[in-house]
Amino acid sequence: MAIPIRTIPERPASAGAADPGRSAVRSFGVFKHRLDRGLDDVRKERLFRELALLLRSGVDPRTVLELLERGQREGPARTVIAVVRGEVVRGSSLSEAMAKASAFTAYERYSVRIGEESGRLSDVFEELADHHADRIAIRRMLRQAFAYPVFVLCITTAVIAFMMNVIVPMFAQVFARSGAELPAVTRAILRLSGLFRTGWPWLLLGVAAVVGGIVLLKRDDRFKGRLERVIWKIPVLGPLQRKTRLARFCRSMAFLLSSGAPLDRALQLSEHMSGSVRLERALERVREQVVRGASLGQALAQHPEFEPSMVAMVGVAEEVKQLDRMFLRLAERYTADVKHRTALLGSVLEPAMILLIAVLVGIVLVAMYLPMFKLSTTF
Fold first, then answer.
1. pLDDT digit string, tens, across residues 322-358
2. Structural domain range at position 135
3. Within a domain: residue 203?
4. What is the C-alpha end-to-end distance of the chain, expressed in Å?
5. What is residue 313's predicted lDDT score, i.e. its pLDDT?
6. For residue 15, is it within any domain?
7. CATH code at 251?
8. Residue-wise pLDDT tens digits, 140-159
9. Residues 134 and 64 both lie in one domain
10. Contact at 8 Å (CB) between 8 and 91?
């Protein structure tokens, strides 16, 4: 059970003064649609860093929340802190207050719960700040890697749409007047142009329906598990996401074990912190096997979600009683691998997109000019 943070009871407010907890709840009702989306990583990194600094300075938690609330500008960040402070004042633990604020992920809430149970809240907040700093760095790398390819893809789509709506119909009129037999590639492009000009509203509607359906179905754990299984099989993006989840799992296990948590308890909490439905289900079965007496390495080896090299290293660390250090090294290795793969992905995407543009535009041009060459040889 999480240990509630002890705070000094507040003095009763006067009749004209507003209760800060209730005013925070009213503010929360106004901004709830914004809080449900959560704070961004930049604000969370700054918030957790300040929490760690103030707690290490010996400031009591209630004063810490008061100082942070005063230091924030009007907006979601200040509203979230006000809600958390109001719940803590009422006697809730910090992790429970964060859950009621609806702006923190399960990984963050369970991390704070671990800090409450182990008495290492400042270390937990420092870990969370580093976690969001890594997320910011990886996101910036992804943006840098995908910015140019996405721009090129948009330009390519616009060019292809223009050719299908304007250029190809002009050639179609010329071919119709000539009455000559057209090559198969030309006929295919003409049919595609006709479908594009008449069916583009239905195409947009279908894309919107697919996107909306995925967003709604992602709330179902079964669908999330199946979608994750498909994503993990994609050649480049699959290993990238898988290693990201494994890095989060290894980092949480390293922190839990170094805090003195038993192995079964560490696995139970890590289930909710991995951010992956597949890993959560696998870790649940691993924990059951460990409770029955199996070693951690043997239990992990029975599930394909975990890499064989990771299983082997965990088995060795289990023999020498160094599981916490091994999980920390694995987390650092997976994080470095994710950064390397992200940078490599950006260097590969740029020439791939240029080649895609050349192929698409080349096919349309060849399909349109090939009948013209044949007509010129007949006269």
1. 888 999 899 889 988 888 887 787 777 778 878 888 8
2. 130-379
3. yes
4. 90
5. 92
6. no
7. 1.20.81.30
8. 877 777 777 788 888 888 88
9. no
10. no
